[in-house]
Structure formats: structure tokens, C-alpha cells
Design goal:
The protein is an alpha/beta fold. It is built from 16 helices and 23 strands. α3 packs antiparallel against α5, α3 crosses α7 and α5 runs parallel beside α6. The radius of gyration is 23 Å and the shape is globular.
């Protein structure tokens, strides 16, 4: 342990993990200010993918649990203890929650690492992002103003911003607590009641967060957590006639289903952040190709490639392609998977057996379709255990190949070549997705031309994902329609009300 008794080594984290599991993990749903079993007693098994060991049997909620949570959320919203609380009051509570998360950051990070296999150093980074997100929105909410419309002396026009009501947030397993913060922080700050549905693959940190939210002072029914499957409790929330908004991060296929459920029920607002197949364009005029290669490798191999904005399509100008790919291979060699509890591990385990097999199947398809396998390609184990896949690189990929078009959600990089700027833009935009894109060049004119032509929710110029809470995050095309982070996300979780007063003159 460090001087301040914080874990710093693999042995420290292993000891903390053993202690945490021995003490007992919270496995019950959090409904109406109480931890409860699922109404029908059902449970789901959550497994440590790095070892194959069972972590816990967690409540598996269904429609009855969703109905109870929605009713509690509506009562809380209508009562107004939170929804009509002055913004400064909501700010104070959310800042207390952020402080509690800071105090328990090692525990929360460890829960995500045990649950979904990511390296603990990465989970700690996620905690910093989650805490920063909560603080950003807490500090923002009492600094946003309404509007006074320009009128004559005989009228007063006001534009008020009001909370939506009951928000259901469905979050993914790849960044469990950070994605949770991106959803619940602006929704709560705006005055809504929030029901969180964590992924069935990573529910543990969300349940721990519920106890911290109660300790922070969130009123009864304002924040609830329903672990369970998407086709059960997730579907029930999406079809509920008393849920006003559905915020989702996950696959495009599920996002489409949720939009259909909204249409079948009450036309609730649906904000989607879905899949990606992000292009990373490297032009020959780049300086320091070693640095660019390191970033290009990190863009796909970070978090085992289980990242919606992963730079999975590497587009390289042919005049430097051979030399640049060699540099990427060298960088990938330094990013091999290791024990997630080792702070020096760059990559961890795939989240579960199904995802492990899915990625390996795409690798087999890549070989069958004629791409050149330059690195990786086989399953790996750490000390004989776990669902690991090393960095995998395919060269000679074409637009017709599945590995070049479909989201794999694993550490698989597809390399394309191009000869001109127009060809690079065409290849980049030839995708159903539009979540992120990278652009590496020293030519400012080219940077501005290409940035404007890329059909993407965000473009990273001479970096990959170096952004903070001040800019919105989201996509276009089949990558979704909503925006997380920044003041723009607060707009998502509120409605405009126009007030027109006729004045005596």
C-alpha cells in the first residue's frame, strides 16, 4: 500500500478484491429508497471474465420491478422535493455525491474491473471521468438562464426550461460507471427522477452508487437502480406509459428496438448513443510517425477494443503505409493483455464468453475474406485463465470485408490504404456509422477541408479522444442522435415552456 494506505501494486489490488468479496457485494435492486430482491426472486450470475469465477448472484428485475420503480419515480417527481428544488440545492446534493464517489473511488473502480475485466488503471481513469462529469453538471445547473423574448410593451414573452419527469437510463458494460455518470448527472441536475438500468454484465458499481446517492441526500424515489436484462426490465421501461425519456448507450440494433418501443407507447423522448466503426486518417505529411502510431494503436486497443468510438479503421496514405503499419505493430506489441488487477496491464479480459467468441469469429472471417493477419488473432490466457485476446491487426482490408464494415467491439484493427484526400474522405464516410473520426496532418488547409467533409459527431485532429466535459459527445447516422456531456446534455433532459403574458398599457 502507498503511504496514504491506497492500493498501488497488483498484490494490493488482489488483497482489496478479496476483502471486498468477503465482506459481501450489494446484489439487490434499489427501488423507492430500499434495497430489495427482484419481485419474482429471479437472479443473474455475474462472473469475473479474467478468472471465470462467479462474483455474485444479482437481482434480475422484470416488468413488475419496472412498474414499482416508475411509480416511485413519478411520486417523487410530482411531490417536487427534488424537481422543484432550487438549482443551488440540487447542486449541493450532487456535489456531495461526487465527494462520496471520490472517497470510494478505489472500491468503485475495483467493482468495474472485477465485473467486466478492464484493467484497474483504466477503471480509475473512468472514476475520474465520472466524478468530473457529476461535478461539471452540478456546477452548471445554477448558471443556466431562461430567456425573455423580444416583444412590444404590451406583452412579456418568457421561455422557461423545465425537467422532463421520469427518465430511464440504460447504460452499457464497457464503461459501467462513467457511462452512468454521463447519463444521470445532467438528468438529475435538471430536476428529473432517474431509473438506471445497468448492463446485466456489469451491475455491481451501479448498485454501490445507489447507496452513495442515498447517503448524499437524494430524496426517496429520485434515483433507483434496476439490474436485469434488456429484453425484460429494459423493455418494460421503454414501453412504460409513464416514462418521459429514455437515454441509451449501446448497440445500434438495440437502439432501433427502443425507438420502436417509444412509438408503441407514449412517444417518449429517446436519446441514443449507438455503435461505431470509426475511421482514423493518417496523411503522409504527419510529423513524428512514432507518436501517431502509438495513438493509432491505443485508439483501438484501449479497453480491449470494447469502445464505441474505437479507431477500428486505420486509413493510411499509401506512400507511408508499409513503414507506418510496422510502427503500429511495434506499438501493439507493448499493449498486450495482462491481469486486470495489475496496474501495469494495458489490456484486460473480454467481458464474457459470448463477446470473446464473437471477436474470435470476426478474426476467422477476416482471414477467410483474404485480409492479411499481421498480429494477434488467437485467444490468450493469463496464468491459464480468462477470456483474453491480444492486439490483432489486419492489413489489406477492403470495404467489402466484414471486418472493415461491421462493429466488432474488440481489439481488432483493420488497415486500409489511400492515395488521395478525396479517396480518404470517401473511405471514411463509407459506413453506416458516424460516431467519431481521427485526422492526422500538419496541413491546416487540409485539416479544415477534411474535417468539414467527415460525417461524424466528433473529429479528433492530431489526437484521439483528448476531450473533456466541455464538449458534447454523440454521433450521426446509425451511431445515434443524442448528446452526452457539456451544457448541451442538460438541454436533452429538459423541455421548453413558452409563456406569453398580455400586459395592460
Amino acid at each position: 500500500m502507498s503511504a496514504d494506505n491506497q492500493p498501488t501494486t497488483r498484490a494490493d489490488w488482489q488483497a482489496l478484491a478479496a476483502s471486498l468479496v468477503e465482506q459481501g457485494l450489494e446484489t439487490r435492486a434499489y427501488v423507492d429508497d430500499a434495497f430489495v430482491d427482484a419481485a419474482d426472486g429471479a437472479t443473474l450470475t455475474t462472473i469475473n471474465p479474467a478468472t471465470g469465477e462467479t462474483l455474485a448472484e444479482v437481482a434480475s428485475c422484470d416488468a413488475a420491478d419496472a412498474e414499482a420503480a416508475v411509480a416511485a419515480a413519478r411520486r417523487a417527481f410530482d411531490a417536487g422535493e427534488w424537481s422543484r428544488l432550487a438549482p443551488a440545492g440540487r447542486k449541493a446534493v450532487l456535489l456531495r455525491l461526487a465527494e462520496l464517489m471520490e472517497a470510494h473511488r478505489h472500491e468503485l473502480a475495483l467493482l468495474d474491473t472485477l465485473d467486466m475485466g478492464k484493467p484497474v488503471s483504466s477503471s480509475l481513469g473512468d472514476m475520474a471521468g465520472a466524478i468530473g462529469c457529476l461535478r461539471h453538471h452540478a456546477e452548471s445547473i445554477d448558471k443556466l438562464y431562461g430567456e425573455v423574448a423580444p416583444t412590444g410593451n404590451d406583452a412579456l414573452g418568457l421561455v422557461l426550461r423545465e425537467p422532463l419527469g421520469v427518465v430511464a437510463s440504460i447504460v452499457p458494460w464497457n464503461f459501467p460507471l462513467m457511462m452512468t455518470a454521463w447519463k444521470i448527472a445532467p438528468a438529475l441536475a435538471a430536476g428529473n427522477s432517474v431509473i438506471l438500468k445497468p448492463s446485466e454484465k456489469s451491475p455491481l458499481s451501479a448498485l454501490r452508487l445507489a447507496s452513495l446517492a442515498r447517503e448524499a441526500g437524494l430524496p426517496r424515489g429520485v434515483f433507483q437502480v434496476l439490474p436485469g436484462f434488456g429484453h425484460t426490465v429494459g423493455k418494460a421501461l421503454a414501453l412504460s406509459m409513464d416514462v418521459d425519456c429514455l437515454a441509451f448507450t449501446g448497440s445500434t440494433g438495440v437502439g432501433k428496438q427502443l425507438m420502436q418501443y417509444a412509438g408503441q407507447s407514449n412517444l417518449k423522448k429517446v436519446f441514443l448513443e449507438c455503435g461505431g466503426k470509426s475511421p482514423n486518417l493518417v496523411f503522409a505529411d504527419c510529423k513524428d510517425l512514432d507518436r501517431v502510431a502509438e495513438h493509432a494503436a491505443g485508439a483501438i486497443f484501449h479497453n480491449q477494443g470494447e469502445v464505441c468510438i474505437a479507431g477500428s479503421r486505420l486509413l493510411v496514405e499509401n506512400s507511408i503505409r508499409e513503414a507506418f503499419v510496422d510502427k503500429v505493430l511495434a506499438a501493439a506489441e507493448r499493449m498486450q493483455p495482462g491481469d486486470p488487477l495489475d496496474p501495469d496491464s494495458f489490456m484486460g479480459a473480454m467481458v464474457d464468453q459470448a463477446q470473446h467468441e464473437r471477436v474470435l469469429d470476426y478474426i476467422r472471417r477476416g482471414v477467410e475474406e483474404g485480409a492479411t493477419l499481421r498480429a494477434g488473432g488467437e485467444a490468450a490466457a493469463i496464468e491459464g485463465k480468462g477470456l483474453f485476446i491480444p492486439p490483432t491487426v489486419f492489413d489489406g482490408v477492403t470495404e467489402a470485408m466484414a471486418i472493415g464494415r461491421e462493429e466488432i467491439f474488440g481489439p481488432v484493427l483493420s488497415v486500409f490504404g489511400f492515395d488521395s484526400e478525396d479517396e480518404a474522405v470517401r473511405l471514411a464516410n463509407d459506413s453506416d456509422y458516424g460516431l467519431a473520426a481521427g485526422l492526422w496532418s500538419q496541413d491546416i488547409d487540409r485539416i479544415m477541408r477534411v474535417t468539414r467533409k467527415l460525417r461524424s459527431g466528433q473529429v479528433f485532429v492530431n489526437n484521439w479522444a483528448d476531450m473533456d466535459q466541455t464538449v458534447p459527445f454523440g454521433g450521426v447516422k446509425q451511431s445515434g442522435n443524442g448528446r452526452d456531456k457539456s451544457h448541451h446534455s442538460l438541454e436533452e433532459y429538459s423541455d421548453l415552456k413558452s409563456v406569453w403574458m398580455t400586459l395592460a398599457t
